[in-house]
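BUG-85 | component: ligand-complex export | severity: low

The export step for zinc ion jobs runs without errors, but we want the raw record kept on the ticket for reference. Input record follows.
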Amino acid sequence: MVIYMKRAIRRKHYHRLKERWKRICINEWGMNDIKKIELYSSELTRTRKPCSCMMCGNPRRTLKEITRQERIANDILKTYIKDSE
Ligand SMILES: [Zn+2]
């Protein structure tokens, strides 16, 4: 998320995303407890990835492999070294 954002815009997007998560809770997950809907929608608005399972987490932590960005950087570095020789 953008670090610098005016307060009004930040609040507007917060409420927009919260309403979106409420719609998902009600229509797609079939929730009908208002307290739970409020709790889940506010948490999901603030956090993009609420879980830290193997599929969502950083591959360095779970699989001990380098990330995609690091692979790209290594390829660029290899071509740069190859060209300079
Ligand atoms: Zn997950």
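Assignee comment: Attached the raw record above. The two ends are 41 Å apart (CA to CA).
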